Amino acid sequence: MPAAKTPPARPQATVMLSRVAHSLYWMSRYIERAENFARLLDVNLQLLLDFQGFTDTTIKEHWGSILLSSGDEERFAKHYATADSRNVTEFFAFDLRNPNSIRSSVNAARENARMIRDQISAEMWETINELYLYLGTHNTDAIWAAGGAGEFFNSVKRSAHLFQGLTASTYSRNEGWEFIEFGKYIERADKTTRILDVKYHILLPSASDVGGAVDTAQWQAVLRSASALEAYRRFYVSEILPWKVAEFLIFSDSFPRSLHFCVAQVDDFLRRILGDTGPRPRTEAGRASRRLLADLQSLTIADVLQEHGLHEFLEEVQKTLDTIGNEMMETTMFYPAESSNDVQQQQQQQQQ
């Protein structure tokens, strides 16, 4: 039998923080996840309103691409017959059977925050608790009856932004801060790849093939889903082109939601958490992070489109991000993440 692997040494400060660390990490990831889905749903609902000529088939394909890119297609099919605007909104916004829904994410974020109530600021707790209570008073029927979902999604986004801003303003720059930032950026990097992957099939091999076939509004929607439209226009004065959208969201080193920027932050905070600051990483997570960052610093959009394929490249990035996150948790945390399912079970037990 092969010899058992010796786990890498944990820095003492991280060991002392392990129970708190897992809650800080997942609290941050879940809030970022809720905000990302609020943006994605808001933008795509608005896109359908702007183009009234969509057929039932087109609408199904539109939402189907989002379900596929999120990895929730099979889960959705178990509970819903048709991928239309109302069902997909219910699934991603309120359905507790979907662990990635906005409500599930906020429930789990609040439970993780509750477990470390004495470790976070009062402002952080109040903001996340207010968002939790707000979601509890809304459902799909209510937001549709009120004239649309736009204001609801804006409220979710504002609350998430407020939480992140208050965290930056009130949380000490210690080990806990490193876990918060690591969780936020690894979740953001993953969601940026999925936002771009929604429209990967529209990208064609060359500029001459694209011509007028690509709907500019759809690529504007991709940028808006990543809150990148204004930043893109400042960087590229010319029209919105598919390969330039992909280039900006993947390779920009200054836009805070680009893949390159997020991975650079992930690598930085991973080094601090693991104490792995040398030129040759000692951990698999450190090596995977360093390789991914090196690729993003050396590849071009032409390399991705012609040699890798955009969809395949994004899938590989998602797998690498999973590897980094999983090993970091195994290395530094002794406790499993508080999930939305755990929250539901605890609530049922309390009611009984």
Overview of this structure, please?
With 352 residues, the protein is mainly α. It has one domain (13-344). The chain has helices at residues 12-16, 18-50, 56-70, 73-79, 85-93, 102-115, 122-136, 140-145, 150-170, 175-197, 207-210, 216-225, 229-235, 242-251, 259-274, 284-298, 301-308, 310-332, 340-351. It is globular, with a radius of gyration of 21 Å.
Mean pLDDT: 85
Shape: globular
N-to-C order of helices and strands = HHHHHHHHHHHHHHHHHHH
Task: List how many beta strands DSSP finds.
Answer: 0
Number of discrete domains:
1
User: What is Rg?
Assistant: 21 Å
Largest sheet: none
Number of helices: 19
The helix content, as a percent range, equals over 70%
Strand content: under 5%
Short description:
With 352 residues, this protein is mainly alpha-helical. The chain has helices spanning 12-16, 18-50, 56-70, 73-79, 85-93, 102-115, 122-136, 140-145, 150-170, 175-197, 207-210, 216-225, 229-235, 242-251, 259-274, 284-298, 301-308, 310-332, 340-351.
What structural keywords apply?
disordered C terminus, disordered N terminus, mainly alpha, 72% helix, 352 residues
SSE blueprint:
Layout: H1 12-16, H2 18-50, H3 56-70, H4 73-79, H5 85-93, H6 102-115, H7 122-136, H8 140-145, H9 150-170, H10 175-197, H11 207-210, H12 216-225, H13 229-235, H14 242-251, H15 259-274, H16 284-298, H17 301-308, H18 310-332, H19 340-351
